[in-house]
UniProtKB/TrEMBL annotation:
Gene Ontology, cellular component aspect: vacuolar proton-transporting V-type ATPase, V1 domain
Organism per entry: Punctularia strigosozonata (strain HHB-11173) (White-rot fungus)
Subunit structure: V-ATPase is a heteromultimeric enzyme made up of two complexes: the ATP-hydrolytic V1 complex and the proton translocation V0 complex.
GO terms, molecular function: ATP hydrolysis activity; proton-transporting ATPase activity, rotational mechanism
Function: Subunit of the V1 complex of vacuolar(H+)-ATPase (V-ATPase), a multisubunit enzyme composed of a peripheral complex (V1) that hydrolyzes ATP and a membrane integral complex (V0) that translocates protons. V-ATPase is responsible for acidifying and maintaining the pH of intracellular compartments and in some cell types, is targeted to the plasma membrane, where it is responsible for acidifying the extracellular environment.
This protein's name: V-type proton ATPase subunit G
Family: Belongs to the V-ATPase G subunit family.
InterPro entries found in the cross-reference section: V-ATPase_G
Keywords: Coiled coil, Hydrogen ion transport, Ion transport, Transport
Stretches assigned to coiled coil: 12-58
Gene3D superfamilies assigned: 1.20.5.2950
Length: 120
């Protein structure tokens, strides 16, 4: 009977060792699968980034002409307004300077209106 018990214990120990090996293999398999999944996900992310970057560049190139035309129109309008302002300045600067000098130089001394009321 002791031989049977020791043989049964030996069988159980061997089964336990076998189970531990199977569990270790399963853990290694799981770790490897996680690593593979991460690398696959990174590859997919890179491919997606490249695709979106190409899409953006295509969109940008197709709309670049519109932006350049709009910029040219704005620049032309700005230049026209600047010329208008400059010509207006040149035409009226002498008259404005004369008016300023007349106001400063030609002083007409008179009493303040509040002073007249008090003196009456």
């Amino acid at each position: 009977m002791a031989a049977q018990q020791s043989q049964g214990i030996q069988t159980l120990l061997e089964a336990e060792k076998e189970a531990a090996k199977i569990i270790a293999q399963a853990r290694q398999y799981r770790v490897q699968k996680l690593k593979d999944a991460r690398s696959e996900a990174l590859k997919e992310i890179e491919e997606y980034k490249k695709a979106k970057e190409q899409e953006f560049k295509a969109f940008e190139s197709s709309h670049a002409g519109v932006n350049q035309e709009a910029q040219a129109a704005v620049d032309k309008e700005t230049e026209a307004k600047l010329q208008s302002i400059t010509s207006s300045y040149e035409a009226q600067k002498d008259a404005v300077v004369k008016k300023l000098l007349d106001r400063v130089v030609l002083v007409k001394p008179e009493l303040h209106r509040n002073l007249k009321k008090a003196g009456q």
